Structures are given as structure tokens and as C-alpha cells.
Amino acid sequence: MAAERGSADGRADGRADGRADGRAGPAWPAVLLVALGLRGAWLGAPVFWHDEVYSRFFASGLQAEDWKPVLFRGEVMTAGGVLALQRSRPDRGWMDTARGLARDEPQHPPLYFLLLRLWAQRAGEGAAPLRALTVLLSLAGLPAIGWLLRELTGDRRTARIGVMLLAVSPFFVLYAREVREYALWTVWIMASSAALLRAIRKTGRASVQAEVRAWLLFSILTTISLYTSLSSATVILSHVAFLVFAVRPWRAVLAGGAALAGSGLCFLPWAIQVWRHRASFAASMAWSETITVPVVELLSTFILHLSRPVADLWAEPSGWEHAAVWTAAALSLAGVAGLRRLSPGVRWLPILLFVGPIGMFLAPDLLYGGIRSVSTRYMTPSLVAVVAGLAVWAARGAGWRRTALLSLVMAGSSLHAIRDPVVWTKGISRGLPEVARLVAASGEERAGGPALVVGNMEQHHPGNLLALCALLPPETGLQFLVPGVGYERPWAVPEGFGRVYLFSPIPPFVDLFVEGARPDTGRTATEIYRDTWMSLYRLDQRPGWIQPD
Question: How far is 521 from 518, CA to CA, in rounded Å?
């Protein structure tokens, strides 16, 4: 049985490299405190962004039909009033959370959001309390990677090194600070993979009852993973490939197939919901296929992904930072190359975990276009394999010197990243603090009243506008235009406000205020902020304009 022999060989290699195991074990309370500190420090400081706003809505049991008709009717609301709309309602229950996800964003299974709902009822709905749940859930990843590395190597020292590296790895630290499901998904990636290796190891060597329990655990963890993220499909495909091409005897292959079939049956209720609401699924994921970028940019983004577990000091590197990115990516690739040192029976599992997301996301982008692979979070299985490989690489030779150096680089990078209120994980909302600063500054002038921000339904406006409200003075006006208003139908500037701003308006709306296009408006639009995802225009009175009779 190749897998069993490989696991045994791995334990033999581990003992050979782990002579200092007894005296070099890290202080586990210190590792836990460092992990908790990096994940929990300044937890409320980063901007509560687009995706996190939707997480709070779904956890509260609110659906798009509850808030979009209230907002997008052309009436002016205050920022404080919009924030009040985001609070949970006592008449909404658990099924409303699941129903809202199924109708609006079925690509997000309900497990994490149900846990978030339970947590919010006790801890509150602020940014820091909600993120605290993800912090605590992410800590389960420490024993999970330890278990995975024990199954891969049989070496306690390698497992301990892996725990230390995961505790300070910037990518995993940053996603442990998001009100999203990705940190919890990371736990199931590692735990289900470890459970698979354990079940294979027990097949033919333990009692029938022990074998059944081992495969049942693998099936349960896979099911939970599916109910946490649909991206678990990449992990399952890696597990299937490992079972078919790298595992003997066939008894283990058949048992693994039965376990995965059981997981599929358990996941069938949500799979049916995804099918029923496939139009919502397609609309929510359309961005990943309709937007295209050059191949060179895709490949450079992938290199940036590889650097994230080791060092993360940049969102869009430039100048000398490119050299740092390539150095960090080279270290990650050294970790992946280190996986070849594992015994033949187990090495293919982490290698397949690394390759799986590349085949599912990067390859289609290269062949057909799209930006599926641009989101680093979809590469999580690959980055788990990177950390596992780095632990194997660091455990050889002068293992603790390598581990100390890696840990210092990772911890320093994480400490730098968590202090940034607009860290790259905030994606399409990274410009919100600057937009809020510009709007609030005009409000301080008190030129005729508070500022007014006008938005519409295009692009990512709903989530970004909702997130912006938390950064603005409560009296700031917000007007959410319905489709057509300001484009096909006239739009009049509401009275009682000072400065008026257009938030990420589409060109037809901006064109109305360009000099000479609509002289009867009395205002011109001046762009004062722009990034990849959003823009802000200030409306100014035209000099010498006279109100027509």
C-alpha cells in the first residue's frame, strides 16, 4: 500500500531531521498570543468594506428586497439614517439568512453567516465585534496545519514549524480579520486533507470500525467545507486526483469515493438552491468572466499571490517593491519544491492542492479571458500548500535558523499590514477613506449646509455607498438614484445642501455637467478623485451663470 508505506517513510525522514525536537519546541502559549495579537490588534481600524457590509446584511436576515427599494427611490437620506437601515431586525430569523443568501448570492453557502448571526446577537454588529468571530475561528487553523503536517511527515518538529509560520503568515493574518468565510474555509482545507491522509493510513491496518470512523470524519469535514465555500470544489478535485492517481490499495480509493459521494448527498440541498437561483449566481460572478486583462498582468498578479504568505507590504508594487515581491515568491516556490522531499505516498496531496486553483482559475483566464485568478482568496489551497512546503523546507538542516528568519519576515510584514486602514484585502473599497475625507472636509466649510453624495446602481455602488456611510458625518446627505434618473430623465440638485458630489457616476450622467453639454444645469463636474474602482466628482456653480426665467 503505497500511501501507507509513504507515510511511514515520511515519519522516518522526520525523525532523521528532527533530532532537536525535544529541546527546540516553541513556547505554545507565546505562539498563540502572537497569532491572536496579529489577528486582533486594531481590529476596528480598517475600513468596513463592500463585502463586509453584505456579510452583516445576510447575517441579519436582510435580503436585497428589504433595503434596495428603500434606498434606490431617489429620495435624500442622511448617512446616519442609512447606517440605521443596516441594523438587524428582530422579525428576521435563521431561515431568512439562508434564504437571502440563496436568492441574492448563492455562491456563498450559509454556514459562516449563520455562525455570524449567532455571534452578532451576543457581541454586537460593529466592525470589531463582527471581525472578532473570524479571528477566533482562524485560530483553529493552527492545530489544523499541525495535524496536516503530522500526517504528511510524521514529524512533530515540522508540524510545530508549520504552526509557527501559519500564526504569522501575512496572507492568513489579513483574512483572519475579515467578516467573510475565508479564514474558516482555510481550516477545513487543512483539516479535510489531514483527515483524508489519516483515513488512507488506517485502511487495511486498523479495525473495520476504526476505518469507518476515519472515512466518516473525512466525509463530514468535506461536507462542512462545502457549506462554508463553493471554492471547496478545487480542494475536492485535488483529493479525487490524489485518490485516483496516487493511492493504493483500491479499497482506500473506493472508500474515499464513497465518502465524497456522501458529502455530495449532504450538500445536495444547497446545490439545489444554487441551481434554482442560477441567474443570481451568474450575475454575482459575471465580473470574473466579463472583465479581461493582459496575460502579462495575470501572470504578474499570480506572482504577487505567491508572495503574500511570506511578505505583504504592498497592494500594487512599484519600483524596488517588485524585487521584494519576486524574492518572497521565490521563497514560496522553494517551499513548494520542498514538498518533493515528502515520501512518495503523500507528497502528491499538497502538490495537487497547490495546482488545483491554478487549473480552475488561472488556466481559464489565460485561455479564454477573465479575472477569476485575480482574487488571492481563491488561491487559498495553493497558499496552504506553500506554508506546508515552507515548514518542510525550514525543518531540514539548520531548521530553527530558517524558521526564525521566516517568522521574523512574516511577522514584520503582518504587523505592517494590519496597521493599514486600506490594506489590499479591502479591494474595491480601498478608496473610501480618501473619498470620505474629501466629502467631510467640504462639510466642515458649512457652505450652505452639509455635503450631499449622489450615487446610482451601476458598478459596485450599493455596497460601497453603504460602506461609505460609516465614514461620513451622520448629517451628510445621500441620494441613491434609480436607473434612468439623471440620464434619460432630468435630475435637479436637492436644496439645503452645500457641496454636491457624484460618486462613481457613469459617463452619461457626468456628461450632463460638462461645460456646454447642458448649459441650463448651472453646474460643472470636476473630478477630484479616481482609482481603479471608484471616482468622485464635485459639482461647482458655473461662473456667471444666471438662473433662467
Answer: 6
Query: Torsions phi, psi of 382, nearest 5?
Result: -65, -40
**Is the pLDDT confidence value at 518 over 80?**
no
Q: Are 421 and 46 in contact (CB under 8 A)?
A: yes
H runs (alpha helix) in 428-513: 432-445, 461-469, 507-511
**b/e map of 119-146 (b: 16 or more CB within 10 Å)?**
bbeeeebebbbbbbbbbebbbebbebbb
21, 41, 160, 392, 442 from 16: Cα distances, Å:
10, 39, 16, 13, 67
**pTM here?**
0.92
Burial of 496 (0-12, 13-18, 19+ CB in 10 A): exposed
pLDDT of 196 strictly over 90: yes
Q: CA torsion, points 315, 321, 323, 329, in degrees to nearest 10?
A: -20
pLDDT at 270 over 80: yes
Residue with the larger pLDDT of the pair 317 and 376: 376
Our CA dihedral for 477, 105, 130, 267, rounded to 10 degrees, sits at 170
Phi-psi category of residue 455: left, alpha or beta, with phi > 0 → left and psi -120 to 50 → alpha: beta
Pairing relationship of beta strands 535-541 and 523-530 according to DSSP bridges: antiparallel
Nearest to residue 310, comparing CAs of 331, 326, 338?
331
Q: Which long-range contacts (CB under 8 A, 24 or more apart) does 516-525 make?
A: 520/548, 522/547, 523/493
Confidence at residue 398, expressed as pLDDT on a 0 to 100 scale: 60
Q: Which residues contact 234 (CB under 8 A, 6 or more apart)?
A: 356, 357, 360, 361, 378, 381
Question: How far is residue 197 from each of residues 229, 252, 267, 355, measured CA to CA in Å?
Answer: 22, 10, 22, 18
End-to-end Cα separation, the chain, in angstroms: 92
* pLDDT for position 507: 77
Angle at alpha carbon of residue 2, lines to 249 and 143, rounded to 5°: 100
pLDDT at 95 (0 to 100): 93
Average pLDDT over residues 215-236: 98
Of the CA atoms within 13 Å of residue 396, those in its CB half-sphere come to 13
* Rounded Cα distance, 204 and 491, in Å: 75
| Of residues 62 and 16, more confidently modeled | 62
C-alpha closest to that of 343 among 503, 154, 194:
154
Collect contacts of 65-74 with beta carbons under 8 A, ≥24 apart. Answer: 68/462, 71/462, 71/480, 72/457, 72/462, 72/480, 72/481, 72/482, 73/480, 73/482, 74/479, 74/480, 74/481, 74/482, 74/485
Report CA dihedral (411, 415, 420, 424) to the nearest 10 degrees: 10
Give the integer Cα–Cα distance in Å for 266 and 280: 23
The mean pLDDT of 454-470, rounded to a whole number, is 83
Residue type, 494: P
Kindly state the DSSP code that residue 277 receives in the 8-state scheme: T
pLDDT-above-70 percentage for the chain: 88
What would the pLDDT profile of 328-373 be if each residue is shown by its tens digit?
999 999 999 999 999 988 999 999 999 999 999 999 999 988 888 9
Average pLDDT along the chain:
87
Q: With bands split at pLDDT 50, 70 and 90, how would you rate the model's confidence at 21?
A: very low
